[in-house]
Amino acid sequence: MTERLLSLATHGGDAILYLLVGISLLSLAVVLERMFTYGRNRIDLPSFSTELAERLNRGELASALAMARASRAAEAQVASEGLSNFARRPIVAAELMDSMRLRQQQRLDQRLGILGTVGSNAPFVGLLGTVLGIIKAFHDLSSNVQGGPSVVMSGIAEALVATAVGLVVAIPAVVFFNYFKGRQRQIMGNIGQVQKLLLAFRSDGDPTGWPAASATAGKEGA
């Protein structure tokens, strides 16, 4: 058993470095894909909310729905779901918007677990490479006693590279994981605002439509 572990130590250091390089490439791919996804989700929420409220005040439900459908942002998708079902009871529209909110949250959360796993485990993988490298250094010293401390110091220096690489891989992963999670919380907060805005225009007493908006439109026509 000891001989097998020693064989792993003498040959596994390079494999650990290759593994860390592969993990770093995977992490980079996830970051680029998430940047693209979150980049498409940008929306000027104050302008969107203001324009949405103005159209609903004028009774322009179809126009408000078209505006919401024109954007790929999660906030607009939830608004579109609510506007599409506002002929139903308010509680039905609210539940359907909540369902869409959860779907959008799942979409935004995809593959972030990879970044979290890389950020928390890459240092340990690097540390494993360092331990294997130190074992190898002492094994080399036992085979070459005349080399003295220089043999050990050289081996330890090489072994510490694995720890450094592990940290280099982990730190950006943690930074981007926290960044994307922060953006996700912001988007979920925006969605909450949009939901409250839309439900404010629904009347509990009339399950068929928009009495306030229709009354406004009727006065303008008169």
Radius of gyration, in Å, reads 29 Å
Secondary structure tally: strands: 0
Question: What proportion of the residues form beta strands (DSSP E)?
Answer: under 5%
Helix content: over 70%
Count of separate structural domains: 1
- Spell out the helices and strands N to C: HHHHHHHH
Report the uncertain regions.
205-222
Separation, N- and C-terminal Cα atoms: 94 Å
Which descriptor suits the 3D outline? Answer: rod-shaped
Mean pLDDT: 83
Q: Counting H and I runs of at least 4 residues, what is the number of helices?
A: 8
- Structural category: mainly alpha
Largest sheet: none
What does this structure look like?
With 222 residues, this protein is mostly helical. The chain has one domain (2-221). 84% of the residues lie in helices and 0% in strands. The chain contains eight helices and no strands. Helix 1 (2-39) runs antiparallel to helix 6 (112-143). The model is unreliable at 205-222 (pLDDT under 50).
Summarize the structure.
The protein has 222 residues and is mostly helical. Helix 4 packs parallel to helix 7 (149-200). The protein has helices at residues 2-39, 45-57, 61-69, 74-84, 90-109, 112-143, 149-200, 211-221.
Keywords:
single chain; 222 residues; mainly alpha; 8 helices; disordered C terminus
Task: Describe the secondary-structure layout.
Elements (H helix, E strand, L loop, with lengths): L1 H38 L5 H13 L3 H9 L4 H11 L5 H20 L2 H32 L5 H52 L10 H11 L1
